[in-house]
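User: structure tokens for Isoprenyl transferase, please.
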Amino acid sequence: MDGNGRWAAQRSLPRTSGHRAAETTVIDVIEAARAAGVEWLSLYAFSTENWSRPSAEVDYLMRLVRTVVRKHAPLLHARGIRCRFLGVSDPRIPRALARDFADLMTLTGDNRGMTLTVAFNHGGRGDIVAAARSLIRAGVAAEAVDERSFAAHLPFPDTPDVDLVIRTSGEQRISNFMLWQVAYAEWVFPTVLWPDFRAPHFLECLHTYRQRDRRFGGVLPEQNGDSRS
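Assistant: Done. Predicted tokens:
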């Protein structure tokens, strides 16, 4: 979800206008993903590093996110979407917003149409450190720690590994996003700014992903001397 500020600057508007325009994109992408049969969708809304932005912008974002959550909660629930918020435990998040997050998770907790994870106050490194601390507190011996047991101590451990990461606006960085889960993800970098990103762009990214051969460090059968039936 990158490019809100540049979208606003291109129109000689304040950065907040770009954030406000992004609301339409969020709903459009959620609907497109659900219609395309995507079972797990994650949106990176606010990183732990975003607290360094001007306080007026951060305050606006907190108010805007609360408005969007309350406005679209009925739609998300009606669509059978289970909503989760990754990384929200921070005293700087307004209590009213944290309560709205919790209410939406409770409301949609039994839904199974699609799981929507909103990364808010999220940092991939922080998640890994928290998992390591959890293992230590649980008294797990070092020799007993493997990838499976480590992943079980991450937030929402039932979340599958990420298949595809779409970063809009042409930026080509990970930016501390779900570092453990994106280990073997495919990446697509559309140049479209997030407020202009729509369902056709999303579907084009899915098409690009489906054209790729995912080898996970191995080789394709025909490259190994085998032929596909």
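User: Anything notable?

Assistant: Strands lie at 40-47, 81-86, 114-122, 164-166, 186-188.
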